[in-house]
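The record is kept unedited without comment:

——
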Amino acid sequence: MAPRIESHLNGAPALRITDIHPVNPDKIIKYISASKGAAFFPDDWEFKLDEELIDTHHLQSAAHSLKHSDVPVAFPTETVYGLGADATRSEAVKGIYKAKQRPVDNPLIVHISSLNQLRQLLRPSGQRGIANGATFDPIPDIYKPLIQKFWPGPLTILLPTPNDSRLAPEVTAGLKTFGARMPGSLLAMVLIKLAGVPLAAPSANASTKPSPTVAEHVKYDLDGRIDTILDGGPCDVGVESTVVDGLSTPPSILRPGGVSIEQLRQCVGWENVVIGYKDSSETGLAPKAPGMKYRHYSPKAQVVLYHANNPQPEWNKVIEEFGPRKSIGFINTKKWNLPKEKMATTAIGSDRGESQSNDAASSPVTSSESSGFAKLIRSATQYAAFETQSATIQTPDRVDVVEVCVISLGRDTESIARGLFSALRDLDKRGAEMIFVEGIDEQEGATAAAVMNRLRKAAEVEIRD
């Protein structure tokens, strides 16, 4: 039996038994089909599961808990692991805030599995969507080009909260709007469909800590606070969704993520979209979207962010400038090289130690004409371990000894995004007191901009050109 992982949430004792249950959607799903529905996107979809597999029972049990329990369930999406609860029940949503110790004025994103489910949330309770004998679509037209192009996927849209809303008031944190997205993860989509309710789901980490990209990160933060973690392997994207506001004029981006401003500007009605967020935490105002107000994505260690094109710092000069530390860490990305000193090398990555993939040629699924659903069904997740090297050096005065750990995420931006939160967490576990991070050029695109946004929110010191 594996040893129990100690809860690290403010030193609180473990109160619940938190179990990790592996679920491989590639194995349990036997059939998928999507209805044509609206002209711009399918209204709904269906699937069939292999009832003989233990993974299926894990998924069904988690869905039952989401429907009937007030204890949230952790599950993977394509961005990061989420902590889900029934978005229509106040006590269930309060369970998220309790488990994460999250400020109650920080709104939650609602995850849906179909447009039909979204429409139910946009109509007042009891309304069927018939007005003057004609069918009325409550989804604002401004969002339909984005839904067609980017859903299911890492895009959250800001929507008006109707009077007599089905959503629990804790979801919106008192705002007249709420964020919704359709996750680009087959496991997440099936879980929501099985539960039969929309899921409020922030990242499944302790509040302010780096977002979790593998099940073990969730266990480390929330052990004893929740019962169930569904382990679908490492997340493909590694940073949260882009959040956009199409209700304002001009439309704005409230949080950078997997969809870039350039991609948005290619859509009808979004040609003049503007940036509506700051890289530092915003104070004094109610946040429209998660991650806008509070310090976020932060490890215990002090983070020093070097902007792109800054020369690689020398260890001795770093120690001289910031003072002696027992342990320091470096996260290398595009240009920084491994140190010349002899170091021990290990590979850090998924505890499963394997890549995952969907084989569309052999999988008995059928897809609609929607490119988003076709991409979801045929998606292939690749996860490469990154290298960690460690060494012991002496301070310039040769009085103290410093443990140095260097993590190299590779030069590919997508790999950097997937490994960033894992690297910060790994250095935290190793006891690093300071972490020096090589930034990347945020002009590269959406993923690079999202990486730098998260790093700025985590960093206490920034070194510019």
Summary: The CA atoms of residues 79 and 354 lie 19 Å apart. The two ends are 51 Å apart (CA to CA). Confidence is low (pLDDT under 50) at residues 1-9, 130-134, 348-370, 379-384.
